[in-house]
Amino acid sequence: EYLAVIEALKKIEKIHHSPEVHCFLDSELVVEQLNQRYKLKNEGLKPLFWEIRELVMKLGGKVQFEYISRNENKLSDKLVNEAIDRHVSES
Fold first, then answer.
1. 64-80 burial code (b ≥16 CB/10 A, e <16)
2. Are the C-beta atoms of 66 and 35 separated by less than 8 Å?
3. pTM above 0.70?
4. Which residues touch 39 (CB under 8 Å, ≥6 apart)?
């Protein structure tokens, strides 16, 4: 999830023309961590967290992370899984 957010924010940074960015994630834990309402206990994720914070600042700090249920996220899940499958088969 963290890597997906980083990649999305990097792409947005290249084409960003909006005063606000909304990131919808189906991991409530990640949303709460990125919104700094939950502590990040996993030391391995901390560098990724700080990379996300840096990207958010580059985008003017106007990035909102919002939780949506997996049911509401079926199309995105399908597209991500297809991309992962393509990447794995190309490796």
1. ebebeeeeebeeeeeee
2. no
3. yes
4. 33
| pLDDT of residue 73 exceeding 80 | no
Q: Domain containing 18 — which CATH number?
A: 3.30.420.10
Total number of domains constituting the chain: 1
* Rounded Cα distance, 83 and 45, in Å: 23
Q: What is the mean pLDDT of residues 69-83?
A: 76
Ranges assigned E (strand) in 1-91: 21-25, 63-67
Residue-level length of the chain: 91
Domain that holds residue 45: 2-90
The mean of the pLDDT values for the chain is 88
